[in-house]
Design a protein that fits this description.
Structural class of chain A: mainly beta
Radius of gyration of chain A: 17 Å
Mean pLDDT of chain A: 83
CATH superfamily of chain A: Jelly Rolls
Keywords (chains A, B): Auxin signaling pathway, Disulfide bond, Endoplasmic reticulum, Glycoprotein, Metal-binding, Receptor, Signal, Zinc
Organism (chains A, B): Macleaya cordata
Protein name (chains A, B): Auxin-binding protein
Distance between the termini of chain A: 36 Å
Main location (chains A, B): endoplasmic reticulum
CATH architecture of chain A: Sandwich
Oligomer: homodimer
Strand content of chain A: 25-35%
CATH topology of chain A: Jelly Rolls
Helix content of chain A: 10-25%
Shape of chain A: globular
Strand order of the largest sheet of chain A: 2-3-10-5-8
Largest sheet of chain A: 5 strands, antiparallel
Number of helices of chain A: 4
CATH class of chain A: Mainly Beta
Largest interface: A-B, 37 and 37 residues
Order of helices and strands of chain A: HHEEHEEEEEEEEEEH
GO molecular function, one term (chains A, B): metal ion binding
């Protein structure tokens, strides 16, 4: 089911990190590495991490590196109260389904200007959906102080190539490309120095 | 946010059908038709129908016809006990996230044969995920007699072009293309005869 080479070897340090945070419950690392990924996977047993972003829990439900996806990728992300994505854009389609909690989507649709400018704000809530027009600069923010915000995220053209802005007045041309992105980076094969 | 022409006019008969089954709660037909689709949408207010398929409830969360999606499309589907998809294939990626219930995915991966042949069976369950390799013949079946099966479905390359098989021994070349598919068909613009 999985294209050959779709699962890259992970560095030992990454594997240890998985175990450290109690991931891979019931699913041995050797199973993943040697026998491939099962067709039907229990989402609660999939590896999750904050990938260095405070307040985030990210799970790749179906991804280009781990599962050989070519055209779509799906993430499950949980934002603790107050946490948020960077201000960013990407040239792929993106759809959100809000599973739990509430928050705000900040969206600057004026891509004909030199910089994003002041974004519009839209409240998002449990059982809502929204999509981000391609290349529009946006930020998802858990503005609810009392509850986690959990979203299912679908993107096209994986792996994602993210341009990050320091603020809404930064010129589009100054936004910094982050690629591979945190969760891909962690999965890409890095050769081990045997010497 | 929505490309011009992304929302086609619906036939009056379709609109009446929406109302008949109690859909469009709180969202007037005129709002949808004249003012476009809001960025953030309440999924429980989106139109749903069985599209003539007994036991099915289908909601297009983000679609090519209604929302101008070009690369991904997302559906929320609920199968009553015993109901199922046709045996079918499509040349797009497809990922399922099981939100509620349980069932069975039947999958014939031998696309080098003349017909699908006996499929493999995989149990699916709440909070599981699986994806269908492109062009593999498959069928999702709510084999749980006591509970609805609810899945979130993501496809690439919308709108979906489905080839339907009468049974697992039907040659691939005899499978019948259904396009537009039920839910797209209902949304595509049909000119009204004014005479």
């Amino acid at each position: 089911m999985m294209p050959e080479g779709g699962l890259r070897r992970r560095q030992h340090s990454s594997l240890r990190a998985w175990d450290d945070v109690g991931m891979l419950k019931g699913l041995s690392v050797q199973t993943v590495l040697q026998a491939g990924i099962p067709l039907v996977r229990n989402i609660s047993e999939l590896p999750q991490s904050d990938y260095g972003r405070g307040g985030l829990s990210h799970i790749t439900i179906a991804g280009s590196v781990l599962h050989g996806m070519k055209e779509v990728e799906i993430w499950l992300q949980t934002f603790s109260p107050g946490s948020r994505t960077p201000i960013h854009r990407h040239s792929c389609e993106e759809v959100f389904v809000v599973l739990k909690g509430s928050g705000t989507i900040f969206l600057a649709s004026n891509s004909h200007e030199k910089q994003p400018g002041k974004p519009q704000e839209y409240p998002i809530f449990s059982n809502s959906t929204f999509h981000i027009p391609m290349n529009d600069v946006h930020q998802v923010w858990n503005t609810n102080e009392n509850e986690d915000l959990q979203v299912l995220v679908v993107i096209s053209r994986p792996p994602v190539k993210v341009f990050i802005y320091e603020d809404w007045s930064m010129p589009h041309t100054a936004a910094k490309l982050k690629f591979p992105y945190y969760w891909d980076e962690d999965c890409f094969y890095s050769p081990k120095d045997e010497l």
